[in-house]
From TrEMBL:
One of its GO terms (cellular component) is plasma membrane. InterPro entries: NRAMP_fam. The chain crosses the membrane at residues 33-57, 78-97, 117-135, 142-161, 181-199, 231-252, 272-305, 317-334, 340-362, 374-394. It is found in: Membrane. It is a multi-pass membrane protein. Keywords: Membrane, Symport, Transmembrane, Transmembrane helix, Transport. GO terms for biological process: iron ion transmembrane transport. It comes from Pseudoteredinibacter isoporae. The keyword Acetylation does not apply. PANTHER family: NATURAL RESISTANCE-ASSOCIATED MACROPHAGE PROTEIN 2 (PTHR11706:SF33), SOLUTE CARRIER PROTEIN FAMILY 11 MEMBER (PTHR11706). This is NRAMP (Natural resistance-associated macrophage protein)-like metal ion transporter. The keyword Amino-acid biosynthesis does not apply.
Length: 400
């Protein structure tokens, strides 16, 4: 199996419009103060995605199928099925709104068209690619464009010369400034994307089968390198976006607007910034607009025990429903930045539920044998669940 594959797809999926918008909002509103949340998010993503990949390699199953197989009592199995459908099916519908709105934002930054028209074009393009079944033909091209935009953000970071000591302080000194809890949860939700756990398990399993390899230990080693380096690179990109936004916008009296996103690249690219940003956001949004409905279909069909074949009518209905709901809210005129932040925060609130299901599956000896979680993996996974749950409960408490 190639060393770099599914992990890079996961990284490209979370470096989408949500990451750009949320990270920009975090930097513009709170400077470097929330970088610790990004560091935690990268750590949590590597821990959980390694488990998902190990599950897919060893069992040959997706996460939803493994969770279904983990429960024997009918009432517990029914509850797990309901919760997976609610969390991933409905959660991805919200996430899809942000994907389409973000891709439309990319179009709007270069061409003067309405948000509704741009969102409709993105939705139709995503539908055409999914319906044709040939979306993988352009997957590498889309990922390449996302990586290109990411590299530009990195170069811009060094070009603008941020306060490096301030960055280090933000990374290793946790703080929650007034009004930042929702952004903290959104930062976690845009990095530790719940549907990526389903996507990673299925894609790693498929890649292993197609490779013809039989040495699981070697495949696990490759997968861990793939996961760690790919997600680490994604975290570095997010750090660059936060830092450039903080350098450009933090401390200004005016509130940060979606129209200002491309301005972060102007110190390096000048007038060409909006076109580079538009291309990158379009690619990032379209990549996520394809993967999110697919992941929802894999999760729901796996939980229900239905076929996950791409040509199966139930599978097609689910991805179409997720795509349609996301397109509907985006075309209805939902503010792009607000929709994206809301979707990432919803992901952050759903994460503990999906992480608990993953931990339950990873402790099933009859599924994983000697490859089940050890004490260290369970402690790390439990730490992630507890911290994210506490943040979510704190946010809910603050509303009352």
């Amino acid at each position: 199996m190639k060393k770099f594959g599914p992990g890079l797809l996961v990284a490209a999926a979370f470096i989408g419009p949500g990451t750009v918008a949320t990270a920009s909002k975090a930097g513009a509103g709170f400077g470097f103060a929330l970088l610790w949340a990004l560091l935690f998010s990268v750590f949590a993503t590597i821990v959980l995605q390694e488990m998902a990949a190990r599950l897919g390699l060893v069992t040959g199953k997706g996460l939803a199928e493994a969770v279904r197989a983990s429960f024997h009592r009918p009432e517990l199995k029914s509850l797990s099925i309901f919760l997976i459908i609610a969390a991933i099916g409905l959660g991805n519908a919200a996430y899809q709104t942000g994907n389409i709105a973000g891709a439309a934002l990319g179009i709007n930054s270069a061409i003067d068209v309405s948000n509704q028209l741009a969102a409709g074009i993105i939705a139709l393009l995503a539908f055409a690619l999914l319906a044709s079944g040939h979306y993988k033909l352009i997957e590498k091209a889309l990922i390449s464009l996302v990586v290109l935009m990411s590299i530009v953000f990195l170069l811009t970071l060094f070009w603008v010369g941020p306060d490096w000591l301030g960055i280090l302080k933000g990374l290793f000194t946790p703080s929650i400034p007034d009004g930042s809890v929702l952004i903290v949860i959104a930062l976690i939700g845009t990095t530790v994307v719940p549907y990526n756990l389903f996507l990673h398990a299925s894609s790693v399993s498929q890649a292993f089968k197609e490779s013809g390899e039989s040495d699981i230990d070697q495949a696990l080693s490759h997968s861990r390198w793939d996961t760690g380096l790919s997600i680490g690179f994604g975290g570095l990109i997010t750090l660059a976006i936060i830092a450039t936004s903080a350098t450009a916008f933090f401390g200004q009296s005016e509130s940060f607007q979606a129209s200002q996103l491309a301005q972060q690249l102007e110190p390096l690219l000048g007038p060409a910034a909006k076109y580079c940003f538009a291309l990158g956001m379009l690619a990032a949004g379209l990549t996520s607009a394809i993967t999110a409905p697919l992941a929802a279909a894999f999760a729901v069909c796996g939980a229900m025990g239905w076929s996950t074949d791409f040509k199966n009518r139930r599978f097609q209905f689910i991805w179409f429903a997720v795509l349609l709901s996301g397109a509907g809210f985006a075309i209805a005129g939902t503010k792009p930045l607000a929709a994206i932040i809301f979707a990432q925060a919803a992901n952050g609130l759903l994460l503990p539920l999906i992480a608990v299901f993953l931990l339950l599956a990873m402790n099933q000896e009859r599924l994983l044998g000697n490859y089940k979680n050890g004490l260290l993996a369970n402690c790390l996974g439990g730490f992630v669940v507890i911290l994210v749950s506490c943040l979510g409960l704190y946010k809910l408490y603050s509303l009352f």
